[in-house]
Amino acid sequence: MPLDAVQKAFTEVFRHRSVSEAAVVLRVTRSAVTQHLAKLQQRMGAALFIRYRSDLEPTRPAQELFAPADRVRVLEQLITEKING
Hints:
mainly alpha, 4 helices, 85 residues
C-alpha cells in the first residue's frame, strides 16, 4: 500500500473522527480505510485512535502525526491545483 493512500486515509479519519465518513470523502470502501489505518498503526507500533460508539478519539501518536501529515496533504493539493491550472 502506498504511503500516500495511507496518509490520506489517516488525515481524513482524523478530521472526521469516522472511518465511514473518511471513506466517503476518499471515494473508497470503509474496509480500505480500515486496512490503511491498520498498516499505519503496525508501522508506527502504536494505536492511533480509541474507538467510542459515536466517534474515534485520536491518541497522542495520532495527534503528533496529524500536523505534519496534514501539511503534506495541503501542499500536494496546492501543487496539483497549480499544475492543473
